[in-house]
Amino acid sequence: MSSNLHPMLNVAIKAARAAGAIINRAALDVESVRISQKQVNDFVTEVDHAAEQAIIDTLLTAYPGHGIWAEETGRERGAKHSDFVWIIDPLDGTTNFIHGFPVYCVSIALAVHGKIEHAVVYDPTRNDLFTATRGRGAFLNDRRIRVSKRTQLKDSLVSTGFPFRPGDQFKTYLQMLADVMPRTAGVRRPGAAALDLAYVAAGFTEAFFETGLNPWDVAAGSLLVTEAGGLVGNFTGESDFLEQKECLAGTPRIYGQLVPVLGKYSKFASAGDKAAVRQGLTSEAGETPDTPDTQAEAAEGDAAAPTNPARDDAPF
């Protein structure tokens, strides 16, 4: 750990490395790891729990007055009403891990008064440590990183995540993917959102998009991207995305080119855009297109949704 880093970031690095050591030991005999299922295709292992425990213990030993918001234990630990909240994903990419596919990471972020101030994403398989502090830049293994210099979507490599939970809108996602893929140089699906965001920050990819994500999936990675000169928001380009279950990140130019493509698939899209998406889905499936009456009903429902979700004081 560097003496030049903020003390809170140093503690987060210590916690991430402790979790990474647990994950690496378990990876030596991954077939013996006990696995349970939270819901269809959503797994948790004893390694997730052990890694999370190590992270929380490290953080609360240093900062007992801080709050905790973790994937597996929620807000059970830490101070309940602190302005300092650690947002933790102890093993992002659990499905990859249990198959021995070496793309997973530890993600730790600190939110202060609702804004992410420090971030660590640690890849234990490669010993890659991504760190950021607001206003101080983003780093990979002590080397300053910046987003890619590519400016055209057609030259860009874009990463994503597939829907995999019950209730995910798989058909809509396929239509979204069909809109994006022909416009790019390639689309990849590594399987760990925190690493996807870290790779955008490092310039390995030009953009990332996914729906259904939770705050612990994107909190740390989002700061890496913005500190590396990129942009993060929801599909309509609003910067307040953390709890909206949709995330788009990229270089400024590529982000700007993807918002018009992905915006119509956002939960905050206009009624007209939503109707167009539904029209495309029903036409593709050979179903009867929406009638004016059903479109009017949909528009009426959409009118109840917030038209501008951005806010600076989003509570945790």
Automatic annotation (TrEMBL):
Question: According to the UniProt entry, what is the EC number of this protein?
Answer: 3.1.3.25
Composition-biased stretches (Low complexity): 293-309
* Cofactors: Mg(2+)
Question: Do you know which CDD domains this protein is assigned to?
Answer: IMPase
Reactions it catalyzes? a myo-inositol phosphate + H2O = myo-inositol + phosphate
Annotated keywords: Hydrolase, Magnesium, Metal-binding
Q: Which family, according to UniProt?
A: Belongs to the inositol monophosphatase superfamily.
Its recorded name reads Inositol-1-monophosphatase
